[in-house]
Amino acid sequence: MNSATTPRTRGISKAVVPAAGLGTRFLPATKATPKEMLPVVDKPAIQYVVEEAVAAGLHDILMVTGRNKRPLEDHFDRAYELEEALAAKGDTDRLRRVRESSELGAIHYVRQGDPRGLGHAVLCARPHVGREPFAVLLGDDLIDPRDPLLARMLEVREELGGSVVALIEVDPTQIHLYGCAAVKPTDQADVVRVTDLVEKPEAGSAPSAYAVIGRYLLDPEVFDVLDATGPGRGGEIQLTDALRELALREADAGGPVHGVLFTGRRYDTGDRGDYLRSIVRLACEREDLGPEFRAWLKTYVDEELRE
Question: What pTM was computed for the model?
């Protein structure tokens, strides 16, 4: 076989974006509006994720959705009446921004009929992905485009094969909120070999302080592993459990698993507090909003501290 088409070096072009969750932490806002469509400044969170995938060269995007997720499809479709109204007004700036989401890439959709966990959502992508390596991007994690995590992960997979996960070092008191990786170093400072994985370990039992965040590059062998993976923590099919199996295989089918240690800017929109902090941070950095908003924020904070 030509080395350019082996599983290790074949380029990744497909990204899977699980978006079937109920968003219960944001009720009642998410009663009729998908959590992924909640605005982060003036764009829905899901658009940041799709833009990140496209910037890394992944133009074929599959969204795994569920009931009441139709607004996702509408957002990435053309809005002819709105576009015509803006064009008639000569509002070229807003017209450009409206069209951006429908011109990002080829976006496809499949429904996850039963909410059976992230592993099951990934398994729903099998007919679309086939036997190709692919990326998975979770919508709760927004990565600043100035810190191209996905591009670095693609480099690591091209060099080392197998699967690659994104890791951050967290306070040990917070590790129970994440999937946790046991690791050993490699000859690259920002790359580790994953030797084991635990989904949301109990306090005091975590193998490290390295938490898995929502970026994965997966070998297609993960589908066969997920097929054989029973319900794990929370009664759901956990992607972490399948990756653990691949990590233990080392150089065999689907392995190994490596981690990229990420220290850049990440905006967590997973709960209400983090969501609000993400909006403030992103608004402060915007050229069109930042100067005025930062000045107001400083005044507001100073006044609050005086009380």
Answer: 0.90
